[in-house]
Structures are given as C-alpha cells and as structure tokens.
Amino acid sequence: MYRVRTSIFGLLGASSEKFVPTASDNPTRLQSSLRAVQSFSFLGELSSLAILYLWLLSDGYLTHLVLFADTKMKRFAVTDEIIQPRYVGVIAILIVFSVSWLFHFAINQLGVQSGSGIRRMLLQITTLAAGLSIWMGWCSIVDFGRQLRFSKDSAAIERFAVFVDSQWKVLVAGESPLVVGPSNPYPLYEPTLLIYSNINMIPDTEIAFVAIERTSQEAIRFELSGSNLGRWLEIRFTNDPPGKFIGGIESHFTPLSYRKLSDRIFLVEFAES
Q1: In the chain, where the domains are located
Q2: What burial class does residue 209 get, using C-beta atoms within 10 Å of its C-beta: 0-12 exposed, 13-18 middle, 19+ buried?
Q3: Radius of gyration of the chain, Cα coordinates, nearest whole angstrom
Q4: What distance in Å separates the CA atoms of residue 267 and residue 8, rounded to the nearest whole number?
C-alpha cells in the first residue's frame, strides 16, 4: 500500500511540475513581444513612406507646402482652406514614420534579433534614406506625377495650342467660345500675353490656366493655376527645348526645369524676374 501511495503521489508531483514556469519563460515572451513591435514598426515605416509618395504623385497642391510664401497663391485662390488640411496630413504621416523608426531603432539596440545584425542595420538605413530622398525630392516627385497625368492629355493640349496660335486675333478680341471671361492683353499695340480674370480649362482636360503667352512661330505657353500653380505648359513649334523668353509685360523668364510630355509639349518651371 505504501508503495502504491508513493507512486501515486509521485505521479501527481510529476504532473504538477509541468505547470511550474521555468526561469526562461518570461524573457522568451518579452522577446516575442518585442519582435512583434519591431515588425509593426517596420510596417509603419514602409506604409507611411508609400502613402506619402503616392500622395505626392497625385496631388499637385503639395508643391505649395514648400512655396507657401508665394504671393501668387492668394491671387490664384490657393487658399489656407486648401493648404492647411494638407499640412495636417503630411505632419501626421511624418509623425507615424518618425515614431515607427525610433521604435525600430530602440528595439534593435536592445539586441532583439529578427535576422542578422547587418540585415537589421541595412533595413534601418534604407528606410531612413528613403524618407530623406522623398523629402529632398518633394517637388520633383509632384512634377513626375503631373508628367504622368498630363501625358495622357498631350493630344488635347497640342490641339488647343494649335487653335490658339491660329486664332490669336480672335482670342485677343474676346470672341472665342473656348475661353471664358474677359482678358487683359499686353502689350496693347501688339499683344503677346492674355491674362484672364476667370480660370479657364484646356478643352477635354482638367488642366486649368489663367494666362497665355504667345511667341509667334515659336511657342504657346499656358500659365497653369490651381494645383499646378507655378508650372507652365509650353507647346513648341520648333525642335529646340524650352529656353528664356520675355513676356508680354516685359518679365524675363528662365527655365529652372522641364519635363517632356511629347515631342512638342513640355511641363516647365520658370524663374521670373
């Protein structure tokens, strides 16, 4: 009987020992939790960068977060109501990226390994470099998005430019049904510039413009408005790329950068003096 009782108690003791936590359980659980946080942090870095990049490609107004001091914004109705929500959105994305990156960095410093040390270091450097690249190339990314969108409308843009060039006198007289609102022609004796009080659209597109500069036998230039403020569409009738020109009110324009949309059409950023 004694032996039976001993064996029973021994079995009970052995079975109860299976539920006693070992000394290594808590560190293992902590490491698993930290690895999960590390994975979510890395996902936060990648998703915030991807969202910001896609937003820059699709929203030309984000250029004005850099050009917010430009007085032309008020003139062409790029108002605070348009800009401020974008500031909030961009700041929120940058906060998510920064917090995620710092969490990722801190967990790496604790020595929680989810791969080799070199691999973890490269991931951190890569995401930080990607974030800095987006920041440094902000306007270039927005212009690349414009290039993608405008390229689809290149036929309509060129068609309207040819019409403007051939019907210039009709436009100066304000008799064209394709352009809405009164215009101010400059110079008065032989106008090469039409500034419109209304925002007009290039037919069959969603591209808004407020002024047209014409250099006879050379180019038609549309000064864009709205989300594309600060950029011009230049349609050239010669084979050379955009260059310097003097506008209708004696302003001097020098191209800072341009993107080719087709053989004749360029998206241009000018410096005005």
Answers
A1: 30-136, 150-272
A2: buried
A3: 31
A4: 88
Is the CA virtual torsion 151, 204, 230, 267 positive or negative?
positive
Type of residue numbered 55:
W
List CB contacts of 266: < 8 A, sequence separation 6 or more: 233, 234, 235, 236, 241, 242, 258, 259, 260
User: Average pLDDT of 209-223?
Assistant: 93
Closest CA to 198 of 174, 171, 179, 170: 179
Q: Could you tell me which residues are beta bridge partners of residue 211? A: 195, 223
Kindly list the distances between the CA atom of residue 216 and the CA atoms of 122, 161, 261, in Å, as whole numbers in the listed order: 56, 12, 21
Q: What is the DSSP letter of 78?
A: -
Q: Is the pLDDT of residue 75 over 50?
A: no
Residue 210 identity: V
pLDDT classification of 199: cutoffs 50, 70, 90: confident
Point out which residues pair with 250 in neighbouring strands: none
Task: Write the burial class of residue 14 (CB in 10 Å: 0-12 exposed, 13-18 middle, 19+ buried).
Answer: exposed
Which pLDDT does position 213 carry in this prediction? 96
Where does the chain have alpha helices with state H?
2-17, 25-58, 72-75, 80-109, 117-136, 138-151, 154-166, 168-172
CA distances from 209 to 73, 112, 136, 152, 222 (A): 14, 56, 28, 17, 6
Residue 4 pLDDT class (50, 70, 90 cuts)? very low
The whole-angstrom separation of Cα 184 and Cα 224 is 16
- Where does the pLDDT of residue 71 fall: very low under 50, low under 70, confident under 90, or very high at 90 and above? very low
pTM of the model: 0.79
